[in-house]
């Protein structure tokens, strides 16, 4: 096990390390030009972290990590080659650039290949408040994880076992530079505490858990509170029933409702579109949600979990609507996929940045359950049963039966099914109970009707 000294943990040398990565990127770009590349780009990263796992009051693992990597991509006209290394010795860096050039010389022309347009590069780099390193030492992390697990195990006599608890901290430095003269630097931190518990005995055992994650230590939930929440969720699952197959409303809890937004993103992302593997082909400008539904992208949000002034191509990001009044406003494109589609990049190379789904009501699960009346509350999803081409949706699920507007008893061994196009139009409400642990901010989602298949 590598042990980080207290001095190394407390000294913040991140800016000098970023400058070192930036200098390396410039050297590599110059070398690519010298070898004949018409364009080139370099991505450098460095990560440090500490991760601790405990179980039943004993330490299982303590892991300290330090990783780094450099990826070089070169273009000879419209021929592309890429190579990467974790070795920063001059000979290794020289060989990496040479290998990327050799690959490019043997590839076929790709009309969409090349850097994003120089005019689109980011020029402003505001402080997005994403850097909050935590000088967490191994013994402190162990104490946090143990406190989390102990609180969970003591919270209810029906907790019979533990699947463990964890505490972690990580920081990341990255530089992206290209031959347009663009250079972007980023530093970020991420911390988490979590616990998974087991309740009941024999065939009646149930498992669940809870975790908290944030960019800054002060935004984490208290370790003991996390343990108690894990216990509460676990015992609530005891003695589940199945259900008779029926058509009924389905209420997605916040921690699973973001998967619905994830399905939307998969369908409107460039790779799926230019491969014609999306059920939302040619859908920009069409209504796919109720007329009150809205999703905004906020890449410049301070302390957002995925904030950035530039995307993976160096293109400037901007606040914009993805869905407004239920109408799809745009796709999610980087430079390459945009060219393949004959469109303009949306500044989304590498994904989306801080999506916010607008709540339609100031209400959470209990209120939406009352609105639903009769139906199913889903708190867990299993499997990957989504067909991206047709939108057909079928996933294993667990949760709670809702009757007369009240959450009654746990259910499992069921499947929920529908078609995403229909499901999107049948959304009746989005709650204000947003789960902050993701860059997709969304509350509970109530879908008016789906097929729920059980064993009864």
Automatic annotation (TrEMBL):
Residues 40-104 form the Metalloprotease TldD/E N-terminal domain. Its EC number is 3.4.24.-. It comes from Stenotrophomonas oahuensis. This is Metalloprotease PmbA. It is an enzyme of class 3 (hydrolase). Keywords: Hydrolase, Metalloprotease, Protease. InterPro entries: Metalloprtase-TldD/E_C, Metalloprtase-TldD/E_cen_dom, Metalloprtase-TldD/E_N, PmbA, TldD/PmbA_N, TldD/PmbA_sf. The gene is pmbA. Residues 132-238 form the Metalloprotease TldD/E central domain. Belongs to the peptidase U62 family. Residues 246-454 form the Metalloprotease TldD/E C-terminal domain. GO terms for molecular function: metallopeptidase activity.
């Amino acid at each position: 096990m590598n042990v980080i000294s207290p001095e190394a943990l407390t000294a913040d040398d991140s800016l000098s390390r970023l400058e070192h990565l930036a200098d390396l990127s410039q050297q590599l770009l110059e070398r690519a030009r010298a070898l004949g590349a018409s364009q080139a780009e370099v991505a450098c990263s460095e990560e440090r972290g500490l991760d601790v796992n405990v179980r039943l009051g004993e330490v299982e693992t303590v892991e300290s990590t330090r990783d780094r990597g450099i990826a070089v991509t070169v273009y000879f006209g419209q021929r592309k080659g890429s190579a990467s290394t974790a070795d920063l010795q001059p000979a290794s860096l020289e060989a990496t650039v040479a290998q990327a050039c050799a690959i490019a010389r043997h590839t076929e022309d790709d009309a969409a290949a090349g850097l994003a347009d120089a005019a689109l590069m980011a020029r402003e780099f505001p402080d997005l408040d994403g850097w909050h390193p935590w000088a967490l030492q191994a013994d402190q992390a162990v104490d946090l994880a143990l406190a989390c697990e102990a609180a969970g195990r003591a919270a209810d006599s029906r907790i019979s076992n533990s699947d463990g608890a964890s505490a972690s901290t990580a920081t990341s430095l990255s530089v992206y530079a290209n031959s347009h003269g663009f250079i972007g630097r980023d530093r970020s931190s991420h911390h988490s505490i979590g616990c998974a518990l087991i309740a009941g005995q024999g065939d009646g055992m149930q498992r669940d858990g809870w975790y908290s994650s944030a960019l800054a230590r002060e935004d984490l939930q208290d370790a003991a509170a996390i343990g108690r929440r894990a216990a509460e969720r676990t015992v609530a699952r005891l003695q589940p029933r199945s259900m008779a197959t029926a058509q009924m409303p389905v209420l997605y809890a916040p921690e699973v409702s973001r998967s619905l937004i994830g399905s939307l993103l998969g369908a409107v992302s460039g790779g799926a579109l230019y491969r014609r593997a999306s059920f939302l082909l040619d859908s920009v400008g069409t209504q796919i949600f109720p007329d009150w539904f809205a999703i905004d992208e906020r890449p410049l949000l301070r302390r957002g979990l995925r904030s950035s002034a530039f995307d993976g191509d160096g293109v400037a990001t901007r606040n914009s609507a993805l869905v407004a009044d239920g109408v799809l406003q745009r796709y999610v494109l980087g430079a390459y996929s945009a060219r393949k589609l004959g469109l303009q990049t949306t500044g989304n190379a590498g994904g989306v940045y801080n999506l916010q789904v607008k709540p339609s009501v100031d209400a959470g699960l209990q209120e939406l359950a009352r609105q639903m009346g009769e139906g199913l509350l889903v708190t867990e999803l299993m499997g990957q049963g989504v067909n991206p081409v047709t939108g057909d949706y079928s996933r294993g699920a667990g949760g709670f039966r809702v009757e007369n507007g009240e959450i009654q008893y746990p259910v499992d061994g069921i499947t929920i099914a529908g078609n995403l196009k229909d499901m999107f139009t049948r959304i009746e409400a989005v709650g204000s109970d947003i789960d902050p642990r993701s860059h997709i901010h969304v509350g509970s989602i109530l879908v008016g009707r789906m097929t729920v298949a059980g064993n009864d």
